[in-house]
Amino acid sequence: MSHAPASAPAPLSALLEAALYCPDLDAAEAFYGGVLGLTRLTRAGDRHVFYRVGGAVLLIFNPAETAKPPSPGALPVPPHGARGPGHLCFAASDAGITLWRQRLEEAGHPIEADFRWPNGARSLYFRDPAGNSIEIAEPRLWFAAGEDG
Asked: How much is the pTM?
């Protein structure tokens, strides 16, 4: 016979942080800070650079550094990392996506795709310097008007 837990945790309500992996943090900074204009929170040498994105944080890690176990006395963050391109999607309006497309093209970043999904939401795809697939999409891709997202 199984017993129900005395209390269940509240449902998870938001992403606090998301990570991408990029071995060249200088190129990542030029792209995420320079081209995309994100606010840098911190950089730790050749290990990571972090950016604020609204109410969340984008973590850009050098995979060669995060695969190492923590040094004695350091925070006990377990080794982690990813190989191959990851994916991240930013939210913007249709008009905002048009302006981002212009900005990316002017900065020399090719656009891989710009299309509308069956529900009418627009998505723009391009690559960061590490080859990660970056998307800017209308929130209505996943959320109805007025829904959190």
From this structure: 0.88
